[in-house]
Amino acid sequence: xxxxxxxxxxxxxxxxxxxxxxxxxxxxxxxxxxxxxxxxxxxxxxxxxxxxxxxxxxxxxxxxxxxxxxxxxxxxxxxxxxxxxxxxxxxxxxxxxxxxxxxxxxxxxxxxxxxxxxxxxxxxxxxxxxxxxxxxxxxxxxxxxxxxxxxxxxxxxxxxxxxxxxxxxxxxxxxxxxxxxxxxxxxxxxxxxxxxxxxxxxxxxxxxxxxxxxxxxxxxxxxxxxxxxxxxxxxxxxxxxxxxxxxxxxxxxxxxxxxxxxxxxxxxxxxxxxxxxxxx
Amino acid sequence: xxxxxxxxxxxxxxxxxxxxxxxxxxxxxxxxxxxxxxxxxxxxxxxxxxxxxxxxxxxxxxxxxxxxxxxxxxxxxxxxxxxxxxxxxxxxxxxxxxxxxxxxxxxxxxxxxxxxxxxxxxxxxxxxxxxxxxxxxxxxxxxxxxxxxxxxxxxxxxxxxxxxxxxxxxxxxxxxxxxxxxxxxxxxxxxxxxxxxxxxxxxxxxxxxxxxxxxxxxxxxxxxxxxxxxxxxxxxxxxxxxxxxxxxxxxxxxxxxxxxxxxxxxxxxxxxxxxxxxxxxxxxxxxxxxxxxxxxxxxxxxxxxxxxxxxxxxxxxxxxxxxxxxxxxxxxxxxx
Lengths: 280, 336
Description:
The structure holds two protein chains of two kinds.
Chain A: E1 2-6, H1 9-18, E2 22-23, E3 31-35, E4 38-42, H2 47-61, E5 68-77, E6 89-97, E7 103-104, E8 115-121, E9 138-140, H3 143-150, E10 159-167, H4 176-185, H5 187-203, H6 210-222, H7 227-244, H8 263-279
Parallel strand pairs in A: 1-4, 1-5, 5-10, 6-8, 8-9
Antiparallel strand pairs in A: 2-3, 3-4, 5-9, 6-7, 6-10
Helix pairs in contact in A: 1-4, 2-3, 6-7, 7-8
Chain B: H1 5-8, E1 15-19, H2 26-33, E2 39-43, H3 47-50, H4 57-60, E3 66-69, E4 76-78, E5 91-94, E6 97-98, H5 109-112, E7 118-121, H6 124-135, E8 140-143, H7 159-168, E9 173-179, E10 196-201, H8 205-211, H9 218-231, E11 234-242, H10 248-262, E12 270-275, E13 277-279, H11 280-288, E14 301-303, E15 306-308, H12 311-326, E16 334-335
Parallel strand pairs in B: 1-2, 1-3, 3-7, 5-8, 8-9, 9-10, 10-11, 11-12, 12-16
Antiparallel strand pairs in B: 4-5, 6-7, 13-15, 14-15
Helix pairs in contact in B: 9-10, 10-12
């Protein structure tokens, strides 16, 4: 599953249009949009809101080692003459929560073509007057809440925080239309990032397929295996899969219809299967 | 066109995380010079990055990052029970670097550390101070390359060179530098030190191909060892871990024969032999994080908290390799 978390509808709109996301009815106070394995939630402004919305979608729609989640939204850049231009998408390698000073570090494993930087999350829009309080390259109002929540479910390499530079500490100068325009202009870079993120998590998925798991569950039931032996059977199956690259079906088909009379008989069959998985 | 696996990952050391308190350390500055393109991220403490929860060791291994830090607290530890002490009473180990550039399937680091990113402790002078304090009490045998392969990093950070120079001036200190690297050239300019043992881990080519990705071939390692021996260094051979692979007897027989047809047996310091073994918790961690090596899912047996092959098989493997080695090396110089 691929999750997108935006604070504002105007940030979400380019994705809704581009990926033809449809509103999921009767969800919660959050607006949720979906198409196939992509889910977008509009959290509202603020770290707390972002954390709740992130938690909501990850629990409602599920997550595993193939999931990825992106927080996408506008941010102010601190230095006008610095490395960032208006409209730049910036992949954040450090997210600081201004209120408590905590810092978060998403893994940057993905090959990407964005600029990188740090973002500091404030509880209020940051203007010129508080420039001296900022320790990061960018300022926003959601990143730290989003990351804290997402990292309760996912690994650091599955979490991405992309901020699009909308202003230089002049938040009042950013209109809703400008937000949509800026996000829309970054779609190409974000699409590439999403493809790479999906590629990375697909490589490291479970060694066994769903079909393998079904077969092993059936065998464990047929042979009345204890929990320990069922666990050992799974390890042996992984060993076989990785060593030979072949599927389990075919090798163990003759055990799927077997009905045994006692646990003792089951253990004998387990030893036979073990031998087959180790030495075939 | 669809992307290849290698297209997904940004290059190794694309990012360097630097503790604020070592930003101006000379070793930090030297290391950073070698990576002018790397993104630098300032951090408070290395554990803020290294110890994050839910990290996936095998995924991170595809794009390792560097963390430069200061080691505080204890820096030198008593040797672990599963490690060979080579008859030394005061056996210690220390880790200037955590993690390795190689990716051996059987490596315990995958289960011991929460991350596969590489931590370099740049305050080597503090390590030296702690060793000196130990030396004031008794002689010390110190393994300096257990939780890493120090020699493989020598071009990035010259930890091994500095340990060698440190040891040279301390007669009661013996250090062991264990490696699979062929980076001997990085220390070749030194005069051999009497109290430094260079230890190479050797495996059959089939094991190297399947279970030691990114490491040099057996022939390359033997060539480096031969050069070191010719230069006058003390060289140790380690057939450890021996793995139960198809045709293992033929594989290890050939490996031992090739080793001693290349190296002069009478000049070898000693030989250590051991089968695969790993602390229970480490193996469980490796399985949990989804290792992609069949070796990890073998039905090992747990004895005294350590997973290894069934006792009878382990003994058979040791006996066999020992028998092969004894054709070249006196039994007194073989450590099990």
